[in-house]
């Protein structure tokens, strides 16, 4: 039952990420999906995959996306 709730959280996190107009918020919200998938892997007794997903999906990818958005500049007219 809890795995269904975690899957719903992951799906809602992905939908919220897609719906964001601000790229920095979207970059930060990618961590929700990564963390919930990592928790799902841990719940399904795959701790090595869960640890990798937690490091990559919940920490590295959102940080790199946020840095990329922060470092780029938009040309306003």
UniProtKB/TrEMBL annotation:
Keywords, in A-Z order: Cell membrane, Membrane, Transmembrane, Transmembrane helix
Species for this entry: Methanobrevibacter cuticularis
Short name of one Pfam family: MbhD
Transmembrane intervals: 26-45, 51-70
MrpA C-terminal/MbhD domain sequence ranges: 8-74
InterPro entries: MrpA_C/MbhD
Top-level taxon of the source organism: Archaea
Cellular-component GO terms for this entry: plasma membrane
Protein's membrane topology: Multi-pass membrane protein
Location(s) in or outside the cell: Cell membrane
UniProt protein name: MrpA C-terminal/MbhD domain-containing protein
